[in-house]
Amino acid sequence: MDSKLKVDWIKCDGYGLCGDLAPELIDLDEWHYPIIPTGSIDRGLLYAAQRAVDCCPMKALTLVPLSADERKAS
Amino acid sequence: MITTGSAQRLLDGPGPATGAERFDAHLARLGPVPSHVARELIPSLEASGLLGRGGAGFPVGRKWRALAERRGGKAVVLANGAEGEPASHKDRILMASRPHLVLDGAILAADAIDADEIVFYVGMEHETATAAMRRAIEERRAEFRRTVRLVLAPIGYVAGEASAAVHYVNSGDARPMTTPPRVSERGVHGRPTLVQNVESLAYAALIARMGERWYRSAGREASRGTALVTVTGTGRNDGVREIELGTTVGDIAASAGIASSAVQAVVIGGYFGTWAPARAIWDLPLDPAILTTQDLTFGCGVIGLLSNGVCGVAATAQIVAYMAKESAGQCGPCLYGLRSLGEATTRVADGQGAPHELADIERWTRQIPGRGACHHPDGAVQLMTSALNVFGDEFVHHASTGRCSVTGNRIAAA
């Protein structure tokens, strides 16, 4: 099942751990809020993505399945 | 205030200057709200092509159908008259002059989707509209057969956003919520909720009486019907008017006594809108379907004319700074991003911009969109991006020389 990263922006407080843990996936802006990729996560990066999700102190970052429309588009 | 025109439907009858239409006058003019339609109104709304008038332009019939076909208990109707957009006046004018049309629409919606509560959510700063709605509700108390209440929306741009409206009614906090769940699934009291702009509801009340063919008989282009718009930047002739969809920007300006040669740019859709050069847009029909092809949106129907003597960079800075201030402050990219965008744009407008400022502004316009619980940051960035397209040379001129070529002066920054 293809997955993507999703941020709950109300929960996210800009700790920036996700960007430190998975820099190959997640950029941080100058306020340490994540800039995440839009599409599905490459299989080889899923472990890094999951680690970033697990370490988010606000539980704001999640891995979610792509919607049917997104699967079609990708 | 301008209310003349050939396409008077929502504002048909006595002019707004005469105040709110009383219930007996409303009945004498239009007859009672049809009581037999209930769900039968939904196919009629779908066939009419009526689009929501709160800004997003979602088809009204489809929205009602989705709620009517839900599983589970009773629904709630939230009639949205918050109108936090500072440039828009159409909702407050409609509520202040035709409150019973709004009530009719809300009752019809409640019948159609099986709702046992109606909340009228009216911007607290719109005092005339609030008084008119309050009196109209009291005039018809016996008729409702369900809970009906008036909730005053707090002042603020995002208070009218659908999830913020529901949040406020539920808990007194007018900040948007993370979706899903959508308010149509879990809204007021956790129940399925139809959040519908007051103009959309008023139009539904006319379609219930006159039918979809009547609705479709107005309109100059593909999109049918009439719409309330707010015209600004004309000087003395600013105000709300009802237009046939497809009326051109030039027609509207001309009827306000403004010549094309006097206008350099137009912002369509208000603070959440898009700038376009006057010459490119003058003959463009105000038709949601046509505007979309030009990367413009009808939004809440604000037509802002920027005359030749006013600096577009300064006008943009003012809007973006306002949008930054109106961030609910829940999401970092909106809170910090819009603040930085507003401050940098203001410095450039004031001739105080540092060399890197324009590059920062462009980068933020790419970085901020899509990174918030609601679309507030997206709207502000859309306006900013269009300003860079339309006033790009002037932004560069301001940034590199500290001078404004529109006003011809070195900017009098304190």
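The two ends of chain B are 36 Å apart (CA to CA).
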